[in-house]
Amino acid sequence: MTRNVPEFSIADYVVFSLMLAISMSIGIYHAFTGGRQKTTGEFLMADRKMSPYPVAMSLVASFMSAITVLGTPAEHYMSGTMFCWYGVAYMLTMIFTAELFMPVYYHLGITSAYEYLEIRFKSKLVRVLGCLTFLIQMVIYMGIAVYAPSLALNAVTKVSLWGSILACGLVCTFYTTIGGMKAVLWADTFQLLVMISGFLAVIIQASIQLGGWGNVHEICKEGGRIQFDVFDPDPTIRHSVWSVAFGGIFTWMAIYAVNQSQVQRYLTCRTFKDAKISIYLNIPGLWLILALAACCGLAMYAFYKDCDPFSAGYVSAPDQLMPYFVMDILGFLPGLPGIFVSCLFSAALSTISSGLNSLAAVTGEDIVKQIWPNMSESKYTMVTKLLALSYGFLSLLMAYAAANMGSVLQAALSIFSMLGGPLLGLFTLGLFFPWANYIGASVGLIVGMVISMWIGFGAFMFPPGRPKLPLSIAGCENITTFMNESDWTTQYMTHAWQTSTETVPVDIQDTYPPIAALYSISYIYFGPIAWCVVIIVGLIVSFLTGAQDPEELDPRVITPIATKCCCFLPKRWISKLYCGVKHDEVKASEEGTSAEEVKLKMINGIEMKDQHTNTDEEETQD
Model-level pTM? Predict the structure, then answer.
């Protein structure tokens, strides 16, 4: 790197350390107040008594990770504002989650989202498949979520790579293990405020240096960065209105509707109404984060319009642009860069803490309890705390592996992004298609994952050419071209999360096999394709192996979509649209029944059916 920028000062380290100390103190406080985390109900679910507001802020913070803090501004810098159409996807995702998915989970009183799969399909196999898919996703993601931003920050500011990783990982593991879900929710709330403060510091200072936001807008407009009107339905266009606004729904539904980290949060709310509020509050919350990140990216482009640091070789990957920009404009005043670094690692902390608690919940409910169903409450609580602690150390090992695994990690990053669509398809199959049986669900999930990985790995092996918006180096000095071998992970993060807009040369594309044309579709469509495959294959296999009789299903496991979407129709028509599911009967019988009682009845029903099946088999053998 030939162009010097200010390095971290003592004041910056103090600000960063203060953020970590406050996060730790939140965990300590909740470890010694309330029930002192002595039950799994408090440790994993905050006793289901949380207000919707901290839950909403935690939901926003959990998957607005450090990768988002780095990648979204870089996306707007490199490719413009079409990414902002994700705002539509956020809104529709929250509506669908709050109205179609969450009500079933909440009324069942479940702790693990994958517990629903066993209740719906009457099969532990489906539950285990869903559980294992989630475990693989989150273990990979947590390691990357702490390693990638640390690497990008180290490359630009020279902040100690492993010092920041260890500080982040150990602090997060500490407050999550001793403070439980309450500590996670309130720490996420604090960390979201820090994230917003960091973004605002960058935007305000950039606006001052560039002569106001009007100038920023004009510069970006001249550079082609202000663009909202790509309505071409061509699926190979990377970002169009259709791919981002509507294809993006599947990306975010896979997070909010079926990912344990998010489901577990809104199930901690004290009432059904509060759970809905917590989800709907994510709409303005996500819009705010998206707007702030977009403004940072546009301000960054206006600042570097005549000297792109990436093209000039000052940084080796687009994900390093944001830390470089921060040190360039905020480095003159000690402490301000520390605010942004706190913003960056607050995003990482919120992601990791959410992952640790949800991994402990899923492992405890879906594995430990299934093996030792009669374990005492005190012992089970201790086990879940040890699980959270173990996963914390595992995330550090994954971060270490990220630095040494080479191309294996590239495959791992791709795997994470490919599993969301099939999981969403599995839950959709269960909630909306009463004919689906456990065989169809299992086969559909496996085939969906195979197809998703095939297309995803194909797109990585044969990357399509993309149009590239202009970048200038006319105003640069001491231009250099380099590629630091230690930065390969950040480079691949850019590829994996689609923040790069590099164009593959035409002569290289000419050597691609004919099947490569399939891989040229926008990365956003990978999820919808896998979702469709799971549902189609799942239904076909279900009918071939003996479809589930809708009349035999407990109506509580099926979303009454006809009631939600066709409420204007006569009641007798709506009843026919239930497709045999007895939603009318359950409305009368469920009044006055708690969620725990509902779940207990359904689980007992599964066990009774298994007993009858075993008895019938024994009689047949006799």
Answer: 0.88
- CA distances in angstroms from 351 to 135, 142, 168, 346, 488, listed in the order given: 15, 7, 11, 9, 23
On whether the CB atoms of residues 194 and 292 are closer than 8 A, the answer is no
Question: How many other C-beta atoms can be found within 10 angstroms of the C-beta atom of residue 618?
Answer: 9
Q: Backbone phi, then psi, for 436, in 5-degree steps?
A: -65, 135
Q: Which amino acid is at 92?
A: L
CA 477 to chain centroid: 40
The terminus-to-terminus CA distance of the chain in angstroms comes to 81
Residues near 257 by beta carbon (within 8 Å), at least 6 away in sequence: 93, 96, 97, 100, 101, 102, 263, 424, 427
**Per DSSP, what are the bridge partners of residue 50?**
269
H or E element, residue 93: helix 86-96
CA 417 from centre of chain: 9
Residue 364 scores a pLDDT above 70 = yes
Share of the chain above pLDDT 90, in %: 50
How far is residue 523's CA from residue 417's CA, in Å, rounded to a whole number?
10
Residue 538 has phi, psi (to 5 degrees) of -60, -40
**pLDDT tens track for 482-514:** 444 334 334 434 443 333 444 555 555 667 778
pLDDT tens digits, 162-214: 888 888 889 999 999 999 999 999 999 999 999 999 999 999 999 999 999 99
Residue 228 has pLDDT above 60, yes or no: yes
Single-letter code of the amino acid located at 96: F
Spell out the alpha helix ranges (H) of 158-271.
161-209, 213-222, 241, 248-256, 260-266
Distances (CA, A) of 214 to 199, 328, 373, 539: 18, 21, 63, 54
Side chain identity, residue 445: L
